[in-house]
Design goal:
This protein has one helix and seven strands; from the N terminus they run βββββββα. With 140 residues, the chain is mainly beta.
Length: 140
C-alpha cells in the first residue's frame, strides 16, 4: 500500500448528496459519522488496495474520500475496521464520484446479497452492529 495521506483537517461532514430530481436526500436511514472507521477499497480485477477515509456510513453503504477517482457502476471490495470489528471483502458498487478539494468523494452501496458473499447473515449483522455503535450525524 502506498503512503496515501488524506488530510483530516480538510475533511468536512457535508449534508447528504441530494437526488438530482427531488433535491433531497434519498437515504432512508440516517448517516453515521465515520471518522472512526478505517477503510480499504480494492477495485474489481486489481490487486492493489486504495486507502480511503470514510466520510459517512450506514448499513447499506459508505461515502469515502480517495486520492484517485473510482469508476461509476464498478464493483469494489471493501475492508472496514472499527475497534475490534473487522469486515473483509465486503462487496460494493460505486454509485457516484465527484472531486472534493484535492481528493474524490465516492458513494458505495454494499451488495450483501451478491453471489460472491456466502456469509450474508453474518455480514449484515456486523454492519448493523457497526451502525448502532457509531454516532449519528445531525444536520446543523
Amino acid at each position: 500500500m502506498s503512503g496515501v495521506t488524506l488530510r483530516k483537517q480538510s475533511l468536512q461532514y457535508p449534508l447528504p448528496m441530494p437526488s438530482k430530481l427531488t433535491n433531497r436526500d434519498r437515504r432512508e436511514l440516517p448517516r453515521i459519522r465515520a471518522d472512526q472507521i478505517e477503510v480499504e477499497v480494492r477495485p474489481q480485477g486489481r490487486l492493489a488496495r486504495l486507502r480511503a477515509r470514510a466520510v459517512d456510513f450506514n448499513r447499506y453503504g459508505v461515502a469515502v474520500l480517495t486520492e484517485v477517482p473510482l469508476k461509476l457502476q464498478k464493483t469494489v471490495y471493501i475492508t472496514l475496521r472499527c475497534g475490534d470489528l473487522r469486515l473483509d471483502n465486503l462487496v460494493g458498487v460505486v454509485h457516484n464520484c465527484c472531486a472534493q478539494d484535492q481528493s474524490y468523494r465516492s458513494g458505495i452501496q454494499f451488495r450483501t446479497h451478491a453471489e460472491l458473499k456466502t456469509d450474508r447473515p453474518r455480514v449484515e449483522a456486523l454492519l448493523t452492529t457497526l451502525e448502532s455503535s457509531a454516532t449519528k450525524i445531525t444536520p446543523s
